[in-house]
Amino acid sequence: MRVLETVALAARGTGPLARRLADADAAMRRPVSTSRRVGVVQVDGGAGATTTVAGSAAVLARRRGGGVLAVDAARGPAALGAALALDAPLPWTTDAASLHAGGGASRGSQVRARLPHGPTGVAVLGDGSASAPWPPDPQRWRELVDPVGRFFDVVLTDWGVRSDAETARVAAEHHVLVVATRTERGPLERAVARAAAWATAPHAPAVVLLAVDVARTGDRDASLARAAGLTTLVVPHDAHLAARDPRTPTVPGTAVRTAWSDVAARLLALASDPGARLGVDA
C-alpha cells in the first residue's frame, strides 16, 4: 500500500498515528517561495541514507505539484536511481545546457520533462560513480543542478560519505544538511560530534541528525544526539529493503513508511523556515 493511501486511511481515525500523519501531510503540502535544497551526508557508510532519501523523495513527490528532484552524488553504481526504480538516470557528464529547451512560460515543464522519472514521479539526476569523473564536488554539483533544480520545489541530494572539508562546502549550498548515521554507539557518536560542529559553524544551514536503526537499538542511543541539542529523526530499518532485488519490488512496512513521511515533512519545514518545528523528534 502506498504511503498516500496509508495517510488517507489513518486520517479517518483520531488516534496518535492519524494525527501524526495528518500533520506530516499538511507540512509536505506547504507552499515554498523558491526551490529548497536538502543535502544528505554520511560520516560512516551503510547507514541506509540512500533508501531513506528515495523514500522521502517519493512521499514528497506524491504531494507536491512543483516536482521533486533527487540527485545521486554518492559512491555506487546509480544506487539512488535503483531505489527509485529507475533504469537509466542521467550521468554527471550530462551537459546542463542540453536539458534546457525553449523559453517562455513552458520552460520549467520542458526542463522537468527532459529528466528521467521513476514510477513515484521523482526526477533523478546523477548516477553516483557509475560514470566518470567521480566524486562530483559541490562546484560541479552547482554547475549541473542549479540550472535545472530551480524548476523543482525540492532538490534532495545524496552525497554519500564525505570528509569534513567536503561537508562544509556541501552545507554552504543547502538549506538543510542531514547527517545520516547508524544507531550503534560508535558511528552515532562520530556523527553527533561532527553534526554538532557543523550546526555551530558560521552561516550554517539547519542541521538534522538522521539515525537509521540498522542495529535495531531503538531510540536508546539516539538520545545522545538530542542531548547535544540536535534535531533528531529516527527511522526504523527494513532488512528487506536493504537486500532488495531491483527486479522484485519491495513494499516497506508501515513503520518505515510513516517515518519517511515524518522525515519528508520535517525537512521541508526546516528548509522553508530553519526555526520551524513539527511536533516532537520522531
UniProtKB/TrEMBL annotation:
Gene Ontology MF annotations: ATP binding; ATP hydrolysis activity
GO cellular component, one term: cytosol
GO terms for biological process, alphabetical: negative regulation of cell division
SUPFAM superfamilies referenced in this protein's UniProt entry, alphabetically: P-loop containing nucleoside triphosphate hydrolases
PANTHER family: SEPTUM SITE-DETERMINING PROTEIN MIND HOMOLOG, CHLOROPLASTIC, SEPTUM SITE-DETERMINING PROTEIN MIND HOMOLOG, CHLOROPLASTIC-RELATED
Annotated Gene3D superfamilies: P-loop containing nucleotide triphosphate hydrolases
Keywords carried by this UniProt record: ATP-binding, Cell projection, Cilium, Flagellum, Nucleotide-binding
UniProt keyword annotation of Lyase present: no
Listed name of the protein: MinD-like ATPase involved in chromosome partitioning or flagellar assembly
Record organism: Cellulomonas oligotrophica
